[in-house]
Design brief:
The protein is mostly helical. The protein has six helices and no strands. The termini are far apart. Residues 1-19 form the signal peptide.
């Protein structure tokens, strides 16, 4: 009887921990979306999809979105490893404020505005590396 009770308590505890983990991961997913991280990827997607013939874009976009799953999983894991669930909830509260919403709304525009200068800097960095690597 004690074994049965112990097994029941263990199963109940495991289910409770799993539900808490699911809630934490769901809040992390919400936070990632709220931070504008997805809008930065959307900017890149918009540039890349223009290189694909129109008749192949639908299939490309499906594969593109599928290829992002590990990226978002890594982002989720980072938040889970570096923040508590309570901290994630507090960050979400910030992104629900007017200033937080403004940060999110401008994330894609910031990426677009800085993209050209980042590309130029990358080219100059390559020259700099070649200069010092030889």
């Amino acid at each position: 009887m004690k074994k049965l009770l112990l097994i029941f308590v263990f199963a109940l505890t495991a289910n409770l921990v799993s539900a808490q983990d699911d809630a934490f991961r769901n809040d992390v997913k919400k936070l990632i979306e709220m931070t504008g991280s997805t809008s930065q990827i959307d900017v890149a997607k918009k540039q890349v999809v223009g290189m694909i013939p129109a008749e192949k874009q639908k299939e490309f976009l499906k594969e593109f979105d599928e290829s992002l799953k590990p990226v978002f999983k890594n982002m989720e894991d980072f938040y889970i490893e570096n923040y508590t669930h309570q901290e994630v909830k507090e960050i979400i509260k910030f992104y629900e404020t007017p200033v937080g919403k403004k940060v999110t709304a401008n994330a894609g525009a910031l990426t677009e505005a800085s993209l050209q200068s980042i590309q130029e800097w990358s080219m100059s960095l390559q020259s700099m590396i070649m200069k010092y690597a030889q």
